[in-house]
Structures are given as C-alpha cells and as structure tokens.
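Hi U.,

Before I forget, here's the chain from the pilot set. I'm dumping it here mostly so it's searchable later in email.
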Amino acid sequence: MRLGGPARFVVSVRRPEEVAEAYQFAEEQGLPTWALGGGANTIGRDEGFPGVVILNELKGVEIVREVGDAVQVKWMGGEVWDDAVAWACERDYTGIEALSLIPGTVGAAPVQNIGAYGQEVGQVLVSVEAYDRRERRMCMLRRDEMGLGYRRTRFNTGADAGRFYIVSVTLELKRGQMQPPFYNSLQRYIDEHQETDLSPAGVRRMVCAIREAKLPDPRKEASAGSFFKNVIVPAEQVAEMEARGIPVRRLEDGRGKINSGWLIEACGLKGQRLHGFRVSEQAALVLINESATSYLELTMARAEIVGTVEAKFGVRLEQEPVEMIA
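Structure:
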C-alpha cells in the first residue's frame, strides 16, 4: 500500500541458522520482531515499526521424494511463490497452478493458507520446517498440526500467532491436471475462449490472464491485492442469503462463501474514490492507493466500505492484509 514509517532494524536471513541469531539479537535489544517475506500482504502504520523486521531471504528448492505420479518438493521460505508455481507447471505437476501470480514468498503461503480459483495451498501441504520462538529451536510441523482453515491457520490465529518463523515448505504435487467443477471465473474463461488445454501450464496461463485483467500490478499501482476476505456464512444462513439474491458458493461442509467484491459492487462502490483510495473498477475487493499518505486515510476508507456493506447486507467484511504492529 506504500504506507507507513521505517523499521528500527531490518535483518536479512539467508541461512537457517541465522533465524535464531536474528531473534537473539532482538531479545538482547529488548525489541519486538516482525517476520516479513515479500510484504505483499502487509500494511505499515505511520509510526513505523519500533523493532526488528526479519526478512526471509532463504533460497533453494529440492525434490525430497518421488512415488509413482506423486512428488514431494521442498522450497526454502524466501523463494518467490510464483516462481514455485512456474517450476511445478513446467514439470507438469498439478496442485498449485491456480495459485499463479499470487505475490509474496513461499514461506508466507502457509501462514494465510493462500487460495484462488478452487485451490488452496493447504490441500497440498505436507510439512513446514520452522523456528519455534517459544521453544527456541527448529521444529517440523505436519499438515494436521497447522490448524488450516479459510485464510486462518495456527500461524496467524490464536496463542500461536507469530510463534513460528517458516524456514521451508514441503508440498506434495502430482502429475495430472485439475478436475471440474472449476471456480466460476475460471470456467467462464474456459467457455469464452473455448479452452481445451487443462494441463498445469494451461491452467496457469489462463489464471495469469484472468488476474492480469482485473488485479493491479503492485509494482505499478500501490495495492495489497484483495483487501477484504470473502465472507463465510453458516450452513443455516445459506438459503436465506440466496433468497435475498446474493450469490453463494456452497462449500463441502455446508457453509457458504460470498464474494466480497460482489457485495462491494452491489453497494455502488466499484470505482469510487474514498480518502485517497480507489475501489478498483476491475475487482471491487481491491483497494488502490492513489494519493493517500497516512494510515488514518486507510482506516477511513475501510470504515466507509465496511459500514456500507453491513448496512445493506447485514454482513461484516474482514480485512485480509495484516498490519505491522509491535
């Protein structure tokens, strides 16, 4: 979002053992810490960060196991996520091709359980290697120990939020291709362009085209991507929402997912300028910083959008990017 002041210290880690050293330095200085990958999903505040930002620059990728059509691949946490997706697609491995062009690092992917167009990283996660700040040691966490949910995990929710610094991520991918039913926008693209190539590389190409058409390039326009999470409603409310004309995607557990962009657009906010921010004309759940210079302006724009949607539909939007606070 190009907001916020400077950090007091920034420490880059390029070897796993440097993670513990960085936290020891912060402890010796009596300062708070903040783990940062690419910063794509992070918002700074005007006062900056009064502690130590630990920047993940751990690099490397290796195949750790192959059995039949399945392969387990370990990426170091500082690798660029989209480079990992490209690596898999080039080798015809399915599992993460729909997650193309999501900005950020591999180490950040499990924290939020990133997902798009019908895939989530949690579906293919095997384990993560992490530094446990509480125990002051490296550890290995299996998929069933991560508390995976919709944009919520053990890493960003509850008592363990911020406890683990992810050093590497191991995913299990397979040779093959995505199977229908496809996410609505992906299916529309397939139909409109009469696509028949559903290989990992083919789906990646389509997803890149969809994202590039509606999402701003953060290198050119100040944006944190999807600013609001999609709304998850209990199973007993799905029929009520549908009766009110709200499109709901039914999940396997009976709950429903409502596209936040649809709610914002239905409130007439698409393309509107609010306190220095513009609600994107291509994807209404995206906020673009056009002229704002303070965090206060962001809070005002956010409050106006959240309040308008809640007044009209009775649901409360939740911010997706995390905020850099001590």
